[in-house]
Amino acid sequence: MTLEPTPSTGVVELTRLLGGLAWAAERLFVTEGQWADHLGDDTAVVHLATHSRHHGWHAGLWRDALPDSPALDAPSQVQPPAKGWSRAFDDAHALAPAPDAALLSALYRNLVPRYLGLVDDVIGTYRGPGDAHIARTARLVRADVVDDLVGGLGRLHVAIVDRDDIETAASTTQMLDQAFRTC
Predict the structure, then answer these.
(1) CA pair distance 180, 174, nearest whole angstrom
(2) What is d(CA 29, CA 51) in angstroms, rounded to the nearest whole number?
(3) Radius of gyration of the chain (CA)
(4) Which of 29, 43, 87, 100 has a beta carbon 3.0–4.6 Å from 55's, enabling a disulfide?
(5) CA separation for the pair 63, 47 (Å, rounded)
């Protein structure tokens, strides 16, 4: 792939950003896939498993978009976009080995929107003629994530039925916010 970075960005920064997106999509794929196995509601299982598959596909798209240069060693650049990302996923898994309404709420209200913010960074930064593949990938991923996010939040309104669940969800979301403040 031939890249023509915009004046404010270079191929090294592009590699770092795309590697971070691949890492985040892979973690969302694994997290949602594992959690889908533990849900008791068939509709929720299908919903979460579908989102997981989307993230897995997106991870492959981001990896395919990595610049092809031995000098960059692009596969080694697939790592957390920032320190807070790894901590947030670790904290989410430590809270519960299986999802509950609070953890799903934190995922859809915190982790997924932050991932979407990274995708938006790509859309806002890579606009040159040589960036068409990257911009197209980012727009496609953004459309999928927004559709999944809206559907996920809608289902969570049904899943969170009592005050204790709402308070636990708020506490979990605050904890994940703190993890991201280290970014």
Answers:
(1) 10
(2) 8
(3) 17
(4) 29
(5) 25
Secondary structure (DSSP) of 81-139:
SSHHHHHHHHHHHHH-SS--HHHHHHIIIIIHHHHHHHHHHHHHH--SGGGHHHHHHHH
Amino acid at 103: L
Residue type, 34: Q
Q: Of the candidates 80, 81, 78, 74, which has an alpha carbon nearest to the alpha carbon of residue 11?
A: 74
Furthest CA-CA distance within the chain: 55
Rounded alpha-carbon distances, angstroms, from residue 36 to 32, 62, 172 = 6, 24, 19
| CA separation for the pair 19, 17 (Å, rounded) | 5
Contacts of 147 (CB under 8 A, 6+ apart): none
Separation between Cα atoms, residue 25 and residue 47, nearest integer Å: 17
CB 146 within 8 A of CB 116: yes
Question: If you write DSSP's letter for every residue of 48-85 in order, what string do you get?
Answer: HHHHHHHHHHHHHHHHHHS---TTTTGGGG-S-SSHHH
Digit-coded pLDDT (tens) for 108-122: 777 888 899 999 988
